[in-house]
Amino acid sequence: xxxxxxxxxxxxxxxxxxxxxxxxxxxxxxxxxxxxxxxxxxxxxxxxxxxxxxxxxxxxxxxxxxxxxxxxxxxxxxxxxxxxxxxxxxxxxxxxxxxxxxxxxxxxxxxxxxxxxxxxxxxxxxxxxxxxxxxxxxxxxxxxxxxxxxxxxxxxxxxxxxxxxxxxx
Length: 169
What we know:
The chain has four helices and six strands; from the N terminus they run αααββαββββ. By secondary structure, the protein is of the alpha+beta class.
């Protein structure tokens, strides 16, 4: 009888675990037991997906955050002028960063300003960004971004239409 019990337990154990693929784990969940990726139905969901895209170097997720008319603005301190580009250039530039870095850690800090309604929001938010290119080449930034987000009624999601990086080097 004991042998029969062990055989049933053995069969159940391996039968139930045989469908687990250790090379294809479940989506990682954070401490609050929420999925890391969101459906972008909220502003906070956009920032959560933004963080995911940087930390996991995922340009597909990053691209979905940006509206088709997206504009990125940054200050070129070498020549003292503002530069800007659109979505395709930004995704290409971000892809280059993701490929060059061995590790990226983006942490969102508090929002300084939130203005808007149920269709458009302007948000100024702080962040901490660490980019590791090699053990001897690590960049740590404390910055602030000025974001404009718009609700996309076709997909029922929020997307970033404008990002001004106010990080001072």
